Amino acid sequence: MMKKGRHWFSKTGLWFGLAFLYVPIISMIVFSFNNSRLVTVWDAANSPTLKWYGELLRNEQILGAAWLSIRIAAMTASGAVILGTLAGLVLARFGPFRGRALLSGMTTAPLVMPEVITGLSMLLLFVALEQLIGWPEGRDITTITIAHITFAMAYVTIVVQSRLAGFDQSLEEAALDLGARPAKVFFRITLPLIVPAIMSGWLLAFTLSWDDVVISQFVAGPGSTTLPMVIFSKVRLGVSPDVNALASIMVLIVAIGVVASAIWMRRQERRRDREMQMAAAANK
Amino acid sequence: MPRVPLPSPPHRLLAGRLGPWWQLFFRYGPPRWTLYMRHNWAGGRLVIAVPYLWLLLFFLIPFIIVFKISFSEVRLAMPPYAPLLQWASEKVVDVHLNLGNYLFLLTDDLYISAYLYSVKVAAISTLFCLLIAYPMAYAMARSSPATRNLYLMLIILPFWTSFLLRVYAWIGLLKNNGVINNTLMALGVIDEPITMMQTDFAVFIGIVYSYLPFMILPLYSNLEKHDFTLLEAAADLGAGPIRSFLRITLPLSMPGIVAGSLLVFIPAVGEYVIPSLLGSTDQLMIGRVLSDEFFANRDWPVASAVAIAMLVLLMIPIMVFQRFQARELAGAK
């Protein structure tokens, strides 16, 4: 028999690893309330203070960049979800077809492709296109969005594909046997089944786009500086207290989002299980 | 009945898979999912075509352009590279195939040492990632389902927060008057601050920290499927914990180890943000070299050659990763 205390080594490792993951984030949040401009030297007399949060809200450059990033991320997420869902559906449900290997390769390669290569290649494409057909004229929010969609859709594809792979095809086949058109089957059966995957894919794509600095640097024009680009140029010069405040706000939003979506997902799963059980009971 | 000769190639391209286009109207066969999708449903082709064309245009063709530009000569104009093909006269195409950029990479020490350094940094970071992630994934896999979900959420949460800001957080910890040095000095462990910023150590920390979830998740999803009664059987037969780990758990978790390691190693080789923020300026990583060539020197052809050389270096790991990914998805069925 296994003894209870057997896994002390891996348990310790887990707690050590979690501490490793969270200590930097927590320290960043703590020092966002520090009064001192030196950031990491705690000014006990005047702290905690909300001074840097106030300064952040008055910083036009950061607010403007944040709004631009939100718009790009929302467009990216929506585009990536549409393209990624189609690609995931094709890879999971369409069986073998000529060129499938290439499609599957093109959807997994961006997952590991170093960002500098993706960024460079996208920019060179835009430049070549501009020479060739005159579009896109210069680089702006459109080119950033296209570049982001391209790498974010790979993640959505994987999420949707693995969700579909986990489901039996029999429901869809039954609907087709009963005479439903494929489009109807997709919207009535397949889509509702993969809604959770699509939602997490949307959030994933949003985050990836919101976070990206390297690819944006390549494909952004002079008038389109995203928030990560602003942060990057700021923190290259060292720590700065209003970035700490910004980071804390973002961590808070993400934490709320992750916890809420986890609760929502679990509720959905439970409801589905219950419905499945009821359906099984009704069939007896 | 006279046979109609096959029409022009573009038409044949279409006809090859669909049958003649008009057959679309008649060949609506029995409504079977795959059959329908594969042969008869025009909408199915559209569903394939949209993501396919997008990826061809915005993912594959860019690489071909990078490849092309890596052979051209730099010039002072916009865009700053000379065309490969030029119409010398009416019918003579002049091909300027310039291997100089690649020769330059081979002869200038900067590039070779940057490549070797990047591979070294990525390999060491991957190893440390694995050493930290394995016990974590193992402990998660062996805990009860409810706590598992909690741990999973705790692992994923930092991944959702900004990567850039998480790297930034380490500046505050590692710098000379940063949190770690201040704490150690207050405790009297050290008298002088230890220099940690702009060292290899800082880059390792940054990479391990940022990529840790990418190592934990594949390992966890592998270990979660293990049948732990095997270990009990081994214990009954007299194997100690270390021996049964080495003989059972480790070999079985190989797919997770390979997938996680590649997911860390490949992007880490080309990493740009982490070495720029935490690393030294004496020894550059190849991602930094590429972007310097591009932005500071405006030498697009050499930047392209650096990118192609990096791709060649990473080609084998990327292909291995794709095979594992495909097998994983096939296994999910």
Layout of helices and strands:
The complex is a heterodimer of chains A (284) and B (333).
Chain A: H1 8-31, H2 51-58, H3 60-93, H4 100-112, H5 115-133, H6 141-165, H7 170-177, H8 182-211, H9 214-219, H10 227-235, H11 241-283
Chain B: H1 9-18, H2 23-26, H3 33-40, H4 42-69, E1 85-87, E2 93-95, H5 100-107, H6 109-142, H7 145-160, H8 163-174, H9 179-186, H10 200-223, H11 229-236, H12 241-252, H13 254-269, H14 273-278, H15 286-296, H16 300-332
Antiparallel strand pairs in B: 1-2
What name is given to the CATH topology of the domain at 102-332 in chain B? MetI-like fold
Q: What proportion of the residues of chain A is helical, as a percent range?
A: over 70%
The most extensive interface, with participating residues per chain, is: A-B, 113 and 105 residues
> What is the top-level CATH class of chain A?
Mainly Alpha
Give the overall shape of chain B, derived from the CA principal axes. globular
Tell me the distance between the termini of chain B: 49 Å
**Largest sheet data of chain A:** none
Number of helices of chain A: 11
Query: CATH topology of chain A, which one?
Result: MetI-like fold
Rg of chain A, Cα atoms, Å: 24 Å
| Span between termini of chain A | 40 Å
Number of helices of chain B: 16
Look at the structure and give the CATH class of the domain at 102-332 in chain B.
Answer: Mainly Alpha
Number of strands of chain B: 2
Side-by-side strand order of the widest sheet of chain B = 1-2
Could you name the ranges of chain A where pLDDT drops below 50 across 5 or more consecutive residues?
A: none
Main structural class of chain B: mainly alpha
Brief descriptors of the model:
heterodimer; A: 284 residues; mainly alpha; MetI-like fold; globular; B: 333 residues; 16 helices; 2 strands; 71% helix; 2% strand; disordered N terminus
Could you explain the architecture of this structure?
The complex is a heterodimer of chains A (284) and B (333). Chain A has 284 residues and is mainly α. Chain A has a single domain, classed as MetI-like (MetI-like fold). Chain A has 11 helices and no strands. Chain A has helices at 8-31, 51-58, 60-93, 100-112, 115-133, 141-165, 170-177, 182-211, 214-219, 227-235, 241-283. In chain A, α2 (51-58) crosses α11, α4 (100-112) packs across α6 (141-165) and α7 packs antiparallel against α8. The longest helix of chain A is centred in the C-terminal third of the chain and has 43 residues, at 241-283. Chain B is an all-alpha fold and 333 residues long. In chain B, strands 1-2 form a two-stranded antiparallel sheet. The longest helix of chain B is centred in the middle third of the chain and has 34 residues, at 109-142. Chain B has a domain at 102-332: MetI-like fold (Orthogonal Bundle), CATH 1.10.3720.10. The model of chain B is unreliable at 1-33 (pLDDT under 50). The chains are: A mainly alpha (284), B mainly alpha (333). Chains A and B meet through α1, α3, α4, α5 and α6 of A and α3, α4, α6, α7 and α8 of B.
